[in-house]
Amino acid sequence: MRPCIPCALAALALACSGAPNPVPTGGNIPIVADEPDAGPPTPAPAETNQACRAHGECPSGVCSHFKKDNGYCAEEACSPGERADNNNFYCDDGSRWIRSKREGDACAKSYECYAATCFMNPNCDLNPPDRARCRDGKCVSEPVTSPCERDGGQLVLACHEFWDGCVQSMAQHVLQTVCVPCGNGTCDEGECPCNCPEDCPK
Description:
Blueprint: H1 5-16, E1 51-52, E2 63-67, E3 70-73, E4 83-84, E5 89-91, E6 97-99, E7 130-135, E8 138-143, H2 147-150, E9 154-157, E10 162-163, E11 167-168, E12 177-180
Antiparallel strand pairs: 1-3, 2-3, 4-5, 5-6, 7-8, 9-12, 10-11
């Protein structure tokens, strides 16, 4: 069978004309769905230790100042006993930042009490400093009188110097004392319910 030359020429002319190809009929035409709208971009989380001027600017609610109007946001996660913003905040047992308590306020642990610093006071003299502690359920400020206290410890009777019911021994001898970090929220070596009840509850 001889090829149809006019037909071939007509097809070639159509291809060179730039006209769109006719849509085929009788078959399924694939349809590409539009991509779903991703919506607005998700905001980036707040930066760790981001610069701040006020507590309300920080996710943790605490701006730890190094100058009057400049500081860095404290971490949201904290460990009980930690302090921030020059001792103006402490981390409680629930790992939340709480404003430090002042002298005379009710307390359960010594780290809840505000300890004075020399922040923004160039003429400050804290040598030896008074020590803030929780005594009898209230924050008090007491002068540091021993090397133990100057190193941040507390001089207390040794655990074996107490009788049942935490009654102080009446034995005729000099009672032994120990230097312990009482008030840090941990029942450390040398501490017991009798000499450091705030760290070692019964």
